[in-house]
Design brief:
- It is built from 14 helices and four strands.
- The chain is of the alpha+beta class.
- The chain has two domains: 2-160, NADH Oxidase (3-Layer(aba) Sandwich); 202-295, no CATH class.
Length: 331
């Protein structure tokens, strides 16, 4: 069973063992938890996933015995005398600023739960016991720990060396809680079934794109504001793929390159907002430069059409194509 203690550096098997062996502990030894182990648990917490990588969590490590006793007094669900508690808070104000209403109302809770899961598993790997506590008075905990306005305590994780590890509470069997493909349909293990690729036509692709745009528009109502430009950029990339499926469309190397650029940069939105903004600028500049190449015949023509109206709007561009767009743009 010691293999579970290799969770932070061991194989996938160790993680699975640890997930099953972890228990909610409600009786602890007095022995204090060393600070380097506390740091390891918190380090595991900050590597948990968060919606939009917003990382709204703030952790208060409570070691002061008097404060721990007071915390316990205002938390009916807090059992046992653990020497440490980690209060996981979410910075709702920051979350709203960066991620909008959805992030503030929902993502923060999911994110803090992810952090709690990592803490409990890391603690188990380090030979510690934990118990997640949600039954506490929010206003009392805020008052006791000087938690400012705009920040909310979401969960308390009580930590210590277990005096007693409880038996595993029963779990529902998988066949009662897991369905295959549709709610209510039995899950049966049959690897590889229905995995074939579905051939897509241009019409399918266009329909898919319409669905993507509609669901993205809906998302824009409450997703993080930066997801709007992210979805549009993604739509641009998907639109260019229409060349693959749409009959009558020619392959356009410029658009293909642009798509590759977009796909290589779009996820910057998750971790480098300034880089993401620069990438959007670059996309606009590439398109604008290309538009100039495609639609402006010469500098002289530009001046002519902008200043005095296009004299011959249907003249050929430098690709030898009848330039109807030029008349549209500059008329
Ligand atoms: C969101 C959440 C809130 C919980 N709140 C409490 C609590 O207030 N007090 C408590 O003793 N246990 C609490 N627990 C622990 C559960 O009772 C425990 O996880 C469950 O009984 C399964 O036991 P196990 O963790 O040992 O597998 C909470 C767990 C979660 C995930």
């Amino acid at each position: 069973m010691n293999c579970a203690h290799n969770i932070l550096g061991g194989s996938g098997m160790d993680v699975l063992e640890a997930i099953k062996a972890r228990r909610s502990v409600r009786s602890y030894k007095e022995k204090p938890v060393p600070d380097d182990l506390v740091e390891k648990m918190l380090d595991a917490a900050r590597w948990a996933p968060t919606g939009g990588n917003i990382q709204p969590w703030r952790f208060i490590v409570v070691k002061d015995r008097t404060l721990l006793d007071l915390l316990k007094k205002v938390s009916p669900g807090y059992l046992g005398n653990a020497p440490l508690a980690i209060v996981i808070c979410s910075d709702k104000e920051h979350s709203y600023k960066v991620g909008g209403q959805l992030a503030k109302d929902y993502l923060t809770i999911a994110d803090c739960s992810m952090a709690a899961a990592s803490i409990t598993l890391a603690a188990h790997a380090l030979g510690l016991g934990t118990c997640v506590v949600k039954s506490f008075s929010h206003i009392a905990v805020k008052e006791l720990l000087n938690i400012p306005k705009g920040v909310e305590p979401e969960l308390i994780v009580v930590v210590g060396y277990p005096a007693n590890i409880p038996k595993p509470p029963p779990r529902e069997p998988l066949d009662r809680i897991v369905y295959l493909n549709r709610y209510g349909e039995n899950f049966e293990k049959r690897d590889g079934e229905n995995m074939g690729r579905v051939e897509k036509t241009g019409d399918d692709y266009l329909f898919e794109l319409a669905l993507f745009l509609a669901t993205s528009a809906q998302g824009c109502l409450n997703e993080p504001p930066l997801y709007g430009p992210f979805r549009l950029l993604d739509a641009l990339s998907r639109l260019i793929d229409l060349q693959e499926y749409g009959g009558g469309l020619t392959q356009d190397p410029f658009l293909r390159d642009l798509k590759n650029f977009v796909d290589s940069k779009k996820f910057l939105v998750m971790y480098d907002v300034e880089g993401f903004k620069r990438a959007i600028d670059e996309v606009v500049m590439r398109l604008t430069t290309e538009a100039k190449k495609r639609y402006l015949i010469s500098k002289g023509a530009t001046r002519e059409c902008c200043g005095q109206g296009m004299k011959n709007p249907s003249q050929e561009n430098k690709y030898g194509v009848q330039n109807e767009h030029a008349s549209n743009i500059f008329s």
